[in-house]
Amino acid sequence: MASRVAAKVTRKTKAVADSIVHPPFLKLIIPAQQARPAPPLGPQLGKADRSYDLVISHPSSMHLLRMAAAAKKGASSPGTEVCGRLSLKHIYHIAELKKQDPHLFTADLQDICKMLIGTAHRLGIEIVTQDDIESGKVDYTPSGYANFLQDREAYLKQKKLETETAKQSKMMRL
């Protein structure tokens, strides 16, 4: 008698476990060729009828802005430090690319440009206008930008050296 009750309870718990409904969508950022169909990701991907919808969008705005500015990483203090420069033309082209994403498909191009400018400021990327270039405030020629990137590289090496010496001096005190 007890075994029948136990069997009934296990069948009920299995039925409850099988009827778990997952949310209709799952938002992930996975590096290329690193998604595996193993837990915890695998069971979340499949639906009860074993169908799936896969939406692939463009790279993140931060990645596109850094690539356009030729900056390996963003500024450590974005308000005072500049890690790269972009013109409004670059912003417009990135906005055209991002407009093709499903979540930005209905957004206005001007709003996407404003969003990208805000993201660029948070990364420490300076937005250069045509007035800045014409007035000579910023040297936006290819050779001028190459000099800027070399100066930035030297600055990063100096900053890395300073942090390493600070760490070494801290270790010596201990």
UniProtKB/TrEMBL annotation:
Keyword Lipid metabolism: no
One Gene Ontology cellular component annotation held by this UniProt entry: mitochondrial large ribosomal subunit
Keyword entries, A-Z: Ribonucleoprotein, Ribosomal protein
GO BP terms, alphabetized: translation
Coiled-coil ranges (or none): none
Domain named Large ribosomal subunit protein uL11 C-terminal: residues: 59-127
Any GO molecular function: structural constituent of ribosome
Record-linked InterPro entries: Ribosomal_uL11 (IPR000911), Ribosomal_uL11_C (IPR020783), Ribosomal_uL11_C_sf (IPR036769), Ribosomal_uL11_N_sf (IPR036796)
Record SMART domains: RL11 (SM00649)
Highest taxon listed in the record's lineage: Eukaryota
Family the entry assigns: Belongs to the universal ribosomal protein uL11 family.
Oligomer status and interactors: Component of the mitochondrial ribosome large subunit (39S) which comprises a 16S rRNA and about 50 distinct proteins.
Protein name: Large ribosomal subunit protein uL11m
The organism of origin for this protein: Schistosoma haematobium (Blood fluke)
